[in-house]
Design a protein that fits this description.
about 230 residues, about 40% helix, NADH Oxidase, 4-stranded antiparallel sheet, 6 strands
């Protein structure tokens, strides 16, 4: 985390050291894979409340993510207030209207057809929580002086992945939404201009009749997403 003044490097003994056998490591890796395999993106939420502490703990987990120079260039705004959620929905649907009216282009719209998306976003009001993710372009000292952040998109992306995994581990479902442009979120969430909104995450419990697109179950096989020692033998 950034701090003014000179801070010398100080190595600490590794805390929370894990000592596992290869067999234990594989067992844990497979267990986590199987757990994450049950994660599904949904658009059909119930309005069943979710305790604020659950959301706070999931976001605290996101805050443990690695980041460039440990500057942690992110901020999360959690919203359960119906009036604010209604504002976000109205603004997001206005953006989506322009998107589907030609802003996206035919190729993009064709790619979205199997997903079943559309202009209407009722989940932005029905889901008990909306979490808006902001990436901080730069930091500010207590005196208001700017300081540089490093690898902001990468760092914020990793933290968001931690958050999605934490929400799933808590038994919740979520939907990532990236309206473009998202500037309206800065105003609604009352965040400073140097923070860029990157995503809305609707989080809550699945409705009894919740569905997922069939195409969402089609994942690339490991052989298409993994290369091992690609230069070996060359």
């Amino acid at each position: 985390m950034y701090s003014e003044g000179k801070i010398a490097y100080q190595p600490l003994p590794l805390p929370d050291r894990q000592e596992v056998t290869d067999a234990q490591s594989l067992t844990e890796a497979r267990a986590f894979h199987d757990r994450m395999k049950t994660r599904h993106t949904i658009r059909d939420f119930t309005d069943r409340p979710v305790p604020q502490e659950v959301i706070e703990t999931a976001i605290a987990t996101a805050g443990l993510a690695p980041s460039g120079a440990n500057h942690q260039p992110w901020h999360f705004v959690a919203i359960s207030e119906p009036a604010i959620k209604a504002q976000i929905r109205a603004a997001a649907e206005d953006v989506e209207q322009k998107f589907y009216d030609g802003g996206a282009g035919d190729e993009w719209l064709h790619a979205l057809e199997p997903i079943g998306t559309g202009i209407s976003k009722p989940h932005l009001e029905i889901a008990p929580w909306l979490i808006v993710v902001f990436a901080q372009r730069y930091g500010l000292t207590e005196e208001g002086e700017r300081f540089k952040h490093y690898y902001v998109p990468e760092s914020t992306g990793i933290a968001t992945g931690f958050l999605i995994a934490a929400l799933h581990h808590a038994g919740l479902y979520c939907l990532t939404h990236t309206p473009n442009p998202m500037k309206f979120l800065t105003k609604i969430c009352r965040r400073p201009d140097h923070e860029k909104p990157t995503m809305i995450i609707a989080a809550g419990h699945a409705a009894p009749d919740a569905t997922v697109p069939a195409v969402a179950k089609i994942k690339k096989p490991l052989s298409e997403i993994l290369s091992v020692n690609p230069s070996k033998g060359n």
